[in-house]
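FW: tagging you since you asked about this chain on Friday. Here's the raw sequence from the shared folder, copied in full. Didn't touch anything.
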Amino acid sequence: MLRKVLVTLLSLLLLTSLTGCGVKQKISEQVTKKISEGIIEKVAGDDVDVDLDDGKIKVKGDDGSEWSIGDGEWPRGEAADLIPEFKKGTITSVLNSPEGCWINIEDVDEKDFQRYLEDFKNAGFDSNVLNYSDEDSVVYSASLAEKAQGTVTYSNDGVLVIQVSIGEE
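HL: got it, structure written out here
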């Protein structure tokens, strides 16, 4: 009986000392990660791969689509390769598939947006042009020959959104 009490006390002491070393936090993070992955997979379907790491979320579908928040990487692939890379600001989210791409970038200076808009036009997005602007935002939308439709939107709060869809006019 005394032996069981000692083993139990030693076990409790060990667990208490481990939680002081951050093990409790690591266990909590892993449980949160698994629950979050399960929720995203339920919403997106079973044929997705979810990766949660250091506050970043990446979801990859079997169809080649990718969705990410917080990884800050410029997308690659058929649709994304049609647009010039914007190298300023902070990429906060990306939706990317072979047929389309959407990139949200924050902390963008208006001068950098204006330069990028010229790069976008020079990349061939210059037919069937639609322009819109008001006191808060600027929108430029155009076709790339008959291959794709692209839109660049800039708002005065420093947010740039770049979208491209293959096969849409």
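FW: Residues 4-19 have pLDDT under 50 and may be disordered.
HL: agreed, and DSSP finds three helices and nine strands in the chain.
FW: great, closing this out.
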